[in-house]
Each structure stands twice: as C-alpha cells, then as structure tokens.
Amino acid sequence: MDFERSEDQVALAEGVARLCAGRFPLESVRVAEGRPTVADGKGWAELGEAGVFALRVSDADGGLGLGLAEAAVVFEELGRALVPGPLVASSLAAGLVPGAADGSVMVGAVRRPAGPGPILIEDLGAVDVLIVVDDGAGELRLVERGAVTGAPLQRSLDPLTPMWRVEALPEGDLVGGEEDQTRWGRDGNVLTGALGVGLALATMEMTVAYARTREQFGRAIGSFQAVKHLCADMLVRAESARAAVEAAAVTVDQPGVGDPVRAAAGAALLGCEAAQANARSCIQVHGGMGFTWEVPAHLYLMRAQVLAGSLPSPADLAAVVADRY
Amino acid sequence: MDLRYSEAEEAFRSGLRAWLAGAVPSLPPKPPANDWPARRAYDTGWQGMLHQAGYAGIDWPVEGGGLGASPVEQLIYVEELERAHAPYVGVNFVGLLHAGPTIAVEGTAGQRARFLPPILRGEEVWCQGFSEPDAGSDLASLRCRAVRDGDDYVLSGSKIWTSHAEVADYCEILVRTGPEDSRHRGITWLMMPMDLPGIEIRPLRTMAGSTEFAELFLDGVRVPVGNRVGEENDGWRVTMVTLSFERGTAFVGELLQSMELLRSLRDVVVAVGGSGAPGLLGRIGHLGAELDAQWAVTRRNVSQAARTGVPGIGGSVFKLAFSELRQRLAQLGLEVCGRAGLVWDELAGGPWSAAEGGPGNGELVDTWVNGFSRTIAAGTSQIQRNIVAERILGLPKG
Fold first, then answer.
1. Which CATH number do you get for residue B286?
2. Any long-range contacts for A146-149 (C-beta under 8 Å, 24+ apart)?
3. Does B393 touch chain A (CB under 8 A)?
4. Which residue in the list B9, B166, B246, B324 is annotated as catalytic?
5. Whole-angstrom Cα distance, residue B298 to residue B295?
6. Could you tell me if residue A39 is inside a domain?
7. Cβ contact B396–A222 (<8 Å)
8. Is residue B241 part of a domain?
9. Which of A72, A73, A247, A8 has its CA nearest to residue B299?
10. In which band, very low, low, confident or very high, does the pLDDT at B335 lie, cut at 50, 70 and 90?
11. What's the Cα-to-Cα distance from A285 to each of A228, A258, A272, A291, rounded to whole Å?
C-alpha cells in the first residue's frame, strides 16, 4: 500500500501545469469572457496532443494506457488553471467517439431530462458532437452538433462556460449501453471532483498569497486569526477532497480495494463542495476587491457552480453513499 | 498511488486476525467505567496477552524492544484490532504511545533496559504531567519548578489533565529548570515515580462523569537526577519527540469505529422510515463521504510516513477534520434515538437499541458527550488552525 503519487504521476501533473501556464494563462482565457463560444478547437487539439483525453485509451488504440488515477491528477491541474470547455465529456468519450481521444473532435454532454422544461447545454457553440446521457434508459447516444437547434443565453453564470438553450434533443445514435452509462456516471463523478479539487487548491493559494501581502492595521491580514482560520479550513477542505478524489480514482483502477461507486459519489460531493466553499472564502478574504470583476475569485466560484450543475444533486450523491455504506 | 497491500502485509494481517479471533473472546467482562483498579487490571492483562503473542510495541523502535513495524503494518494492526473489537489501549496509553517511544529514542541504555520491558509486558502504567492550570494551549509557559539538590530534583507545583494518575506507577513530567521566563529553553523531561512523598492526587470529574483525569499537587517531591530523559533544559525538544508519536495512527481506531457506527445508524433510519428518513439519510451519506475522505487522508499520511519517516501535513488535516466530524456524527446519532438520548441507561425496545442490533442509546450518549473533548485535547481546533495556517500555509505569526 502506497497512496503517495508515483514519480511518473508527479511528473505528469507538472507537465500539465506547464502546458496550462503556457497555453491557457488566465489573462488570455479571460479575453473570451461572456462570448457564446469560449473553448476553441485549436486549444482543444493541443490538449489532445498532450494526451489529456487519451490517458485511459489503451496503447493498442493509440492512447497512453493509464488509469483513472492519472486522469484525476491531470484534471486537478486543468481545474486549477480554469481551462474552459467540456473536459470531462471529451475525456469520457475517448474510445467511444472517434476523434475524441486526440482532441480533433470536441465532445460535449447533456443528461436527457426526465420531465419538461428548458434544456441547457454547456459550450454548445464549440462542440462538434454531443453525448446524450439517458440515465432512465441506461444509454449513451451520440448526436451531431448540426442536428441540434440551440441558441446561446445572453448571460451565463460562468462567463467562461457559455450556456445554450435547446428546445428538443434528437434521438441520436446508440453508442453505449447500460455498462457505459454507469461508467460514464461513475468516472464522470471522479473527474468532476478532480476539477473541483483543482479549483479549491487554486483559490486557497490565491487567498493565502493575498493574506500574506495585504496590510491593514499596519500588518498583514494573514496574521489575524480570523483570517488564518478561514485559510486553514480551505486547506483542510481541499486536502480532504483531494484524498477522496484520488482514492476514488484508484478504487476504480484497482478492483477489490473498495466500492468504486460509493467512492466516486463521495469524491464528486466533496470535490464540488470544496470548490464552492473555498471560492466563497476567497471572495471574503479579498474583501471589496473580491467582489470586483477584475479579481478572478468569482470565476472560480461560478465554475464550481457549473461543475455542481453537471452532476447529480448533492442529495442524490449523498443518497448513493448512504445506500452503499 | 496503490491501495493494494503487499503479500507480506496481507500475511501480517491474516496472522494477527487469526490470533485476535481466539484472544478477544477469551477476555473477561469489561470492568465498570470508574473502577480504575479494575480497569488497570483489565487493560494491563490485555497488554500482557499482546506481549505473549508477540504483538507488543508494534510501532516502537527495535532498540526499545518493539517490533519496529512499518507505518503500513501499524495501520493494519490498528485496523484489525478495531475490526475484532479488541480492547482499547486504555491505561497503557501514555506508556505505549508517549513515554515508551520517547525513552526508546531519547533515553540512556540503562533507562531503556529498566523502563521499557515493563511497559511492553503491561506491568507498569504511566501517566502524563504536561499541562498545568495556567499552561494549556501555551504549554511552554509551564511553571512547575524543579530545583537541583544533590542527586535529586525537588519538584513543586501542580499539573492537570493527568489521566489514570491514581493507578499509575510513573509520570512523564515536564518541569521548569531554567529561569521563570525561559519558556521552551528552560524545560526538563523527567520520569517521576508516583509513590514518592509529596504527591497529592485529586480526581477531576469530566462532564461525562468519568474520573479518568486528575490534578497533581507536588510539594517537595524528590526525583532522582538519573530519572531525567535528555539533558537539563532540553525537555521541549524531547517533548516534540513525544508528541510526534501521538500523531499518525492514534485516532484510526476511532475513525473505523465511526464508520461502523454510521452504518448502524443508516440501518436504523432505513428500518424506521417515515418522512424524516430522506433528510437523515442525506446527512448520513454526507458524513459517510467525509469519513471515507479521512480514511483516504489516513492512508496518504501513513504512506508519507513510510517514505519520509515523519507524518506529513495529513496529521493536522485529519485531527481538525475528524474531531469535528465525530461531533456531527454523534449529534446525528442522538437525533436518531430521540428521547432515549436523554438518558445514559441503555434502553431496550427502540430500533436504535443495542438489544435490537442498533448502536444503543447509552453508547450514542457517551459518544456525543465525550465528543466535546475531541476538539480540545491534543491541541484545540483553534490552535490546530493556527498551526496549519502558520506552518503549512506560511501565514505570518499573529
């Protein structure tokens, strides 16, 4: 038993962090704020070239043949860098949808709603195809972007995740049965949790850096216990969620070490919660500046909301854990 | 990242499990909570059994007579003892987890030979004299004086939160040997025999009704200089060695017990059903995810200790998170047993009752009340947050 990251996993995380810093610096990503299309095919292809989506595709099929553990490590870095676009869907679609693995095809996803009401889809302007997840029927269906009629909403909560409204979802082609749909939900929980952990770590680091330098009453605000304790709680949340997410990923990779479905639901729950709570503390510690558009604290908060919105509700995730405990 | 155990680790586990399966059922009934002589006999008897079977001092260094097991084996050890519902370390806590390992690392050859074997065999019990009425979170301000007089230190002052003092043979005690304001530079670590003249023990009753704690009043107690561990005035460093043993796997048993308690509460809520069930199950699921996360934090911490020899930041993360988690778990438990949570007596009849296979209302009350100590003992949550913020996150001292 050795739950520390291997040297290869450490190197992988560093490589992705470097890629993100070079290709997706926040100031360049922010140029597209509020546009109906934010993620772009060129950036996507570069992520694909770096192997971000092909991590778990077997060597024989041109992938890297790695596990969900490595994917989680990579997704923490993507979350930390606030990389826009349907990262989880494109990663889960690798192997199911041709072109998804190398980033030449951007794959989005949406759950087929059980009842009436507006259908909202993230990044519809940028994606090439959509996976429609039908939890009721236990199916994954593929829909070409051209077959969907949709319009961008005027103002999306996350300025970097444009939401589109669609009136109806076409039937689509069956690309996965119940096993794939279950795997999609389980592994999607882990990867979404990993993005959340990345967000939570980013806001923690941003907050600590600010608390060290911002002075009031003649001293750094980080010397006040009221601020220190907020920061300490951010670390506890992020590190607890990180351990939960990575343990869930390993539990999927290594049969017999635990219940992967329960671990994945817990990972999603805690990963998103850490992202949301740490973003709130980030705004609070930044004071008035935290409420401005300029300081990116709000971008992490809104992305956390988007992640939570892509998952089953917290109550449903908790019910899965309770049921399988 | 690998969560599978090696063949050697699995072999260690199965050997221990087999022994526990025979040993635990052979134990006498547990003594009454506040009968300390009986509890001493019970706890030391269990330690003697562990020693006979070759499982004493699992985490102690080999030079101290321990097994020098790897952190992963220690984790398996705690896990299996919990799984078998084996007795807790009880009155042997200070000897096995504090004083013993400290003497093993910092003591002289003579001190190791004299003091370690009786701890491992369950023959001598230790207590702790660190905190004082005016030195709690600020331990370095302690004032209990030790004045050198020939071959003795003469001790005067008082100590508090001394667990099991009335049945202890020795006390690991911190005394002021430097000037009054010398703080951590003027502290010495001594082994004080508890039968010396001048020691008064006054039991301190906790809000749980237990008398496990005591106050010590020392008036001219003569402790031989040969009972000093480490150099004079170097006791703070020795103390840091002592406290480093307390982290790591100390609360793992309680974590696993919490997971079992949560399962049992889930079963009760499902059996009872009703309009409140979904809400309670949501809280149970959330607590379950959090307990699972702390189990993951524990395994990460143990892995890090195995590689570097010291527990990593996970120790502070775990202490902070788990102590508060345990309180929320107990709060939920009390809600589940309703008005039966107003008494300590185990009642029969309800779905939560031990008689029906539930956790037992008395047990839940006990967990709830004692839970309040978890965010205070071994560093209050507030001090822990300061430590996390300053030592891990690098925020400036206030």
1. 1.20.140.10
2. A147/A172, A148/A121, A148/A124
3. yes
4. B246
5. 5
6. no
7. yes
8. no
9. A247
10. very high
11. 10, 38, 20, 10
Any catalytic annotation for residue B246?
yes
- Domain holding B92, by residue range, is 7-124
Q: Are strands B228-229 and A173-176 parallel, antiparallel or unpaired?
A: unpaired
Closest CA to B287 of A317, A189, A236: A317
Tell me: do B187 and B273 sit in the same domain.
Answer: no
B268 in the same domain as B225: no
Q: What is the pLDDT of residue B314?
A: 77
A270 located within any domain? yes
Quick one: B228 and B252 in the same domain? Answer: no
Residue A281 lies in a domain: yes
Indicate if the alpha-carbon torsion angle B88, B89, B93, B96 is positive or negative.
negative
The proportion of chain B whose per-residue pLDDT surpasses 90, expressed as a percent, equals 86
- Does residue B7 contact residue B41 with C-beta atoms inside 8 Å? no
Write out the two tokens for B48: 């003697």
Locate B142 and state its tokens: 């302690």
Whether residue A279 lies inside any domain: the answer is yes
Q: Contacts of residue B299 in chain A, CB cutoff 8 Å?
A: 1, 3, 243, 247
CATH number at residue A295: 1.20.140.10
Residues B131 and B115 both lie in one domain: no
CA distance B321 to chain A (A): 7
Token code pair at residue B378: 């071994």
CB–CB contacts below 8 A, A to B? 185
The tokens describing A265, both together, are: 């639901």
pLDDT per residue over B79-99, tens digit each?
A: 999 999 999 999 999 999 889
Judge if B386 and B253 occupy the same domain. yes
Test B396 with A223 for CB contact under 8 angstroms. yes
* ipTM score over 0.95, yes or no: yes
Domain that residue A288 falls in: 180-324
State the DSSP H helix or E strand holding residue A114, giving kind and residue range, or none if neither.
none
Residue A238: list chain B partners with CB under 8 A: none
- Cβ of A225 under 8 Å from any chain B Cβ? yes
Mean pLDDT of B190-212: 96
B137 shares a domain with B107: no
Paired tokens of B236: 């703070």
The token pair at A268 is 């999603």
A311 touches chain B (CB under 8 A): no
* Mean per-residue pLDDT, B257-285: 96
Q: How many domains does chain A divide into? A: 1
- Whether B246 has a pLDDT exceeding 70, the answer reads no
Containing H/E element for B174? strand B170-176
Does the residue B72 lie in any domain?
Answer: yes
Determine whether the interchain pair A240/B321 forms a contact, defined as Cβ–Cβ distance below 8 Å.
yes
Q: Are residues B339 and B385 in the same domain?
A: yes
Residue A114, pLDDT > 90, answer no
Over chain B, what is the mean pLDDT? Answer: 94
A137 phi, psi to nearest 5 deg: -85, -15
For chain B, what percent of residues have pLDDT higher than 70? Answer: 98
